[in-house]
Structure formats: structure tokens, C-alpha cells
Amino acid sequence: MEALTIGDLARRAGINIETVRYYERRGLLDEPPRSPAGYRQYSADDLWRLEFIGRAKRLGFTLAEIVDVLGGGQSATEVLDAARAKLDTVKEHQRELVDLRTRLEQLVDLCRDGDPGACTSLDILS
User: Does the model's pTM come out above 0.90?
Assistant: First the structure.
């Protein structure tokens, strides 16, 4: 594969050119070599890296967590540990959302069927 311009790289990765530059500033992507005319020249490895970042973001990893995985030369065990930690966080958020949903459903029932004073004071949340 021949060198990619920043526009080609961004298009293939499905992101904005400014996102490529931002990832370079954050250390997620190395600054590429430049052509004699000064154009950035990206490689297939850079495209793979951007695609990896996209997949990691869709799994809920923050950019800081992605930097740790990409930059630290992580072993499979360390990536697994990071994935388990992220899964634990997701499970906790799910528990919080279930609790919130339950309280909101109770509030809806209270407001629909119960005491208007209790409804307007949000007694169900205390």
C-alpha cells in the first residue's frame, strides 16, 4: 500500500481530518513522515491504529485508556484485565440505570395515581 494523505487516511478510517490531528497531539498516533512537498504520509499501520481506536471507543474505552493499551506495549493479559475492568464499570452503570428506572417508574405511578403533593416534592427520590 502506498502512502496515504491525511484526507485519504481520515476517509478510510471514517473520521474527520481534525480527529487525526487531535490523535497525533494526544499521542495515539505518531506524527508521520512528510513528503518533500510537506504532506503527511501515513501507512497501513496508521490506518490499522485508527481503526483500533474506533473499535476501542465503541467498546467504551476512553482515549486515556486507549493510550495505555496502545502505548504501553500491553500483553494479552493486560488487555484482558483492562477489558474486565471496563466490563465491571459497565455492569455498575447498568445497576445504577436499573435503580434510576425503578425510581422514575415509581414517581410516574405516584404522580398518576397518588398524592399530588408527594408527586411535586419528588418524595420517591428521598
Answer: no
